[in-house]
């Protein structure tokens, strides 16, 4: 069976209080065809609940599909159910797909590897084949930066690294370290093949962290959950609102891009030349860019990570997707 937690089914508003909230009814600059029939998978999830109203506000009809019922879910079922996918595409005359549904890293403890393959790989292939057959003209897939993190990168300074990894879409080789990353990587290749073989425009968004729950390694982190998330806006996090906006931008530009892959994360203040010091003394680097952060953190009893082992660069999304997250570490400090 597929679990609701795998699609991040959570209350619509569960963002920590210190984070700035972007209004869901923010008017978009709609340059794409109005009135598209958008199939949104994962519509009952954390991202889906934020993205669905954004798409509706842009003038599109949203047909949500999720294993769990929800406010924005029209069809209840799994992407692994090909008959359901075909029927939903046909009955609602779908013209665009945003594939945000998946089993995620936290599901590893309760789902066998075969279920990840069924949902994340076969489910993606089901959607791509049905989209091609129905004449869908654009497809956006939510992927993850997690697939770019090998065991070597994850071990960081403890594993002998002497500088933080500067991560762009050009990072090679990609060696996902768990079944979640492996199946999302496979799904990305299926998307590439759909464009290559059938001309279906596909944009893949490798999103950094935007989930509201504590880190699954929280027991090894000295900082509190809110402190941890604030720190992560420097190098590996974004708000769910910004994640939703990235999908709106990708849906708009997919036909002109053909096939492309983007890291989506809050803009980092760091530069590649900071990487050696980031892994040796991260607080000193942060203080150079934000001299007042010590005072803000001290009032809350917060601290910065001693070492930062990776930095996601979202520059490609800024240049080719014309998208930049609105909330970064500067905004987080201002909100504190």
Distance between the termini: 42 Å
Tell me the strand percentage band: 5-15%
Overall morphology? globular
Name the average pLDDT: 90
Q: Helix segment count?
A: 11
- Number of folding domains? 1
By secondary-structure content and strand pairing, the structural class works out as alpha/beta
Write the topology of this structure.
Layout lengths: L36 E5 L4 H12 L3 E6 L8 E2 L5 H10 L4 E4 L13 H22 L4 E6 L6 H5 L9 E3 L11 H20 L3 E6 L17 H8 L7 H18 L1 E6 L10 H15 L3 H8 L9 E3 L2 H7 L7 H7 L1
Parallel strand pairs: 1-2, 1-4, 2-3, 4-5, 5-7, 6-9, 7-8
Helix pairs in contact: 1-7, 2-3, 3-5
Structure write-up:
This protein has a single domain, classed as NAD(P)-binding Rossmann-like Domain (Rossmann fold, 3-Layer(aba) Sandwich). Residues 5-15 and 20-32 have low confidence and may be disordered. The chain is of the alpha/beta class and 336 residues long. The protein is globular, with a radius of gyration of 19 Å. The protein contains 11 helices and 9 strands. It has a 7-stranded parallel β-sheet, sandwiched between helices. The chain has a two-stranded parallel sheet with strand order 6-9.
